[in-house]
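Dear support,

We are seeing what looks like truncated structure output for some complexes. This example has two components. We would appreciate it if you could run it in full and send us the complete token output so we can diff it against ours.
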Amino acid sequence: MPFSQILVETDPPIGIIRLNRPKVFNALNFELLRELVEALEAFDKDDRIRATVLTGNDDAFSAGADIKELSEATPVELIQRNQFALWDRLKKTAKPIVGAISGHALGGGCELAMNCDIIVASETAKFGQPEINIGIMPGAGGTQRLTRTIGKFRAMEMILTGQPITAREAEKHGLVNKIVPVEAYFEEAKKLAMQIAQKAPVATRLAKEAVLKAFETPLEEGLQFERRNFYLLFSTQDMKEGMKAFTEKRPPQFKGR
Amino acid sequence: MGYETVLVEKKDQITRITLNRPASLNSFNDKMGEEFYSALKDAERDKDTRCLIITGAGRAFSAGEDVSGLKERYTGDSHPSLGDHLRKKYHPMILRIRSMEKPVIARINGIAAGSGASIALACDIRIASEEAGLKQAFIGVGLVPDSGSSYFLTRTLGPGRALELIMTGRTVGAKEAETLGLVNQVVPAAELDEAVNSTAEKLASGPTKALGLSKRIVNQVSSRELSEALEYEAQNQDIAGKTQDHLEAVRAFLEKRKPKFSGN
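Here is the complete output from our reference environment:
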């Protein structure tokens, strides 16, 4: 697949996607998002790939939407362009995504980071929703995901003042899993992805789905959903292999079946 | 480099920034604040600078904030926000000195008072002339320590001694400062350059990345649990272990010779 806005690498069992518009701090234009979604969907279908690392570069994960694409847009054009349909597809990515985030993760960049399942940040990372500074507000999930992640009051402050937070603050508030030096964030994210990729693929997929369900449902419904996925895993060969390996005290050989 | 109030010289990968308003004891007017900060930024970005020296021209290191500007600031009804002044002028320079991942030496040639002392304390290594002194001048004008001096003093001396110096505002002579651990080395004025230059030369020909990472670790660990500090050291050791200078040191060891560090 020829991509122009991202770099895609397969290093089975993991896939690596780098946002690649360094001159504009990886601003998210329509084309980049389209390519990103296509690459993630391709990984979902690729049996060799069991987890993905999504990253930018040391200076920027992504500084947000491409303002040039937006500044002249009318509401009708935005509706016709329907770029949020791409975000809806992004949300449906089935395999785990580890975000390797350094530098700016602002606006759409912060929202994209929050679409990851686990976030490893460099010490230099900065997270923010600065849309308010240009007279708009987050539009790709920022008001919802940030609030569910760091709570109403901190989310309000970030969204209403536009003031970004440092990696350390983000870690303290639960927006990132781990902070490491800038020289090491990508390798650390790869290590985590590799660790996840050793697990039974159907199990990681259904577990991810169940965790994300927590944002969508009341507790009772979520528990029922979890239970069905749990039962479902007892139909897999990997479940039998996992339990057998455990009793035989050897590492399991998962096949994704 | 075209600055009016600071002098920047570079030789053998050592950059020396001299606060250069000797007639006012190198006190910081706003212009010198801006130019000093800009010179710091340049030195940090300059890949060919592997050690930085900060010093003062004439008989003082720096007398701190320039009080000649006070008259204008306090006329009329408006009362200036000192906090905003600090945030804008001093915080960026103190943070820059602490976060810059290369060695910074304070060449304390004379009195370092108020925010001038803070700048000296923010450096990694302090070498002072016998005639130098450090003074927490704030209380004398009814103010509190700023620009990081409470932080640096408390960490170096503990709260008891820090408060003594802050509350009395007395000048600590170079010898006493050395005993207290506030400066690393004291030499006669005539030998100051030799002492500073020999340390700077050693650092500038050292493994710059490892020196920078060491500074990063020391900056971080004092506010962490031992288990976290151990992990942080390990993460940065991984990085240092991949530098050319480390590989060169290993080779030199095996070949029984002195390593030649490139800074990479």
